[in-house]
Amino acid sequence: MFTNDDYRNYFGELEDVCKKSLEVYTDLLNQLSDQSMRNKLFMLAAEDMDSFNFIAETKKKYFQ
Amino acid sequence: MPEKKKILIVDDSQDMRAILSMRLTINGYGVIMAEDGQEALYKVKEESPHLVILDLMLPKIDGYEVCRMLKFDDKLKNIPVIVLSALDQQDEREKAVGCGADAYFIKPFDLELLLTKIRSLIL
């Protein structure tokens, strides 16, 4: 059985993964000029941003 | 939880606003956005951001003028302003510094360097 600390740690890991992913997306988007590639990356980044926000809110609400 | 520091992003490019907004959010900042100089001045007065990231080429009121107006207002002059420019020209840099900008970045810039500068300006 997971303890509260376990949940907090796992959600913390998820948050770190999303943050790293979004750092890579934003670095790429800041440099890329190909518009169709940019559009696709913006869509993917938006999904990760949703994940990041959900994880951060959940962590704050339940495991702070 | 400490209150999030608020940063106003002023850029007429939706892409640039999105990139900066994502990068600032994942680093724990609250984000406000404006897409022209007029909206920027309104948002500064309404939202009291801790820092402004300001593109120089803006519709309605350009970035130089926005920066000048902020720095001439006794209530707002202590808000740090980082200006962004698409042109790497000495006279543009001097003009930006002349209107009171606290830092100057040329697009495309290193986002981590921007974050480092932000941290140094709003401790």
TL;DR of this structure?
The complex is a heterodimer of chains A (64) and B (123). With 64 residues, chain A is mainly alpha-helical.
Detailed description of the structure:
The complex is a heterodimer of chains A (64) and B (123). Chain A starts with a helix and ends with a helix. Chain A has one domain. Chain A has helices at residues 4-31, 35-62. With 64 residues, chain A is an all-alpha fold. In chain A, helix 1 (4-31) packs antiparallel against helix 2. Chain B is α/β, with parallel strands linked by helices. Chain B has a single domain, classed as Rossmann fold. In chain B, helix 2 packs parallel to helix 3 (63-71). Chain B is globular, with a radius of gyration of 13 Å. The model of chain B has no long low-confidence stretch (mean pLDDT 89). The chains are: A mainly alpha (64), B alpha/beta (123). The A-B interface holds A 18-19, 22-23, 25-27, 29-31, 38, 42, 45, 49, 52-53, 60, 64 and B 1, 15, 18-19, 22-23, 25-26, 108-109, 111.
Distance between the termini of chain B: 16 Å
- Largest interface, chains and sizes: A-B, 18 and 11 residues
* Number of helical segments with 4 or more residues of chain B: 5
The overall pLDDT of chain B, averaged over residues, is 89
Q: Let me know the number of strands of chain B.
A: 5
CATH architecture of chain B: 3-Layer(aba) Sandwich
Radius of gyration of chain B, in angstroms, nearest whole number: 13 Å
> How many domains make up the 3D coordinates of chain B?
1
**Extended strand count of chain A:** 0
For this entry, what is the oligomeric state of its chains?
heterodimer
Please give the largest β-sheet of chain B. 5 strands, parallel
Strand content of chain A: under 5%
Q: Please give the share of residues in helix of chain B.
A: 40-55%
CATH topology term of chain B:
Rossmann fold
* Uncertain regions spanning at least 5 consecutive residues of chain A: none
Average residue pLDDT of chain A:
89
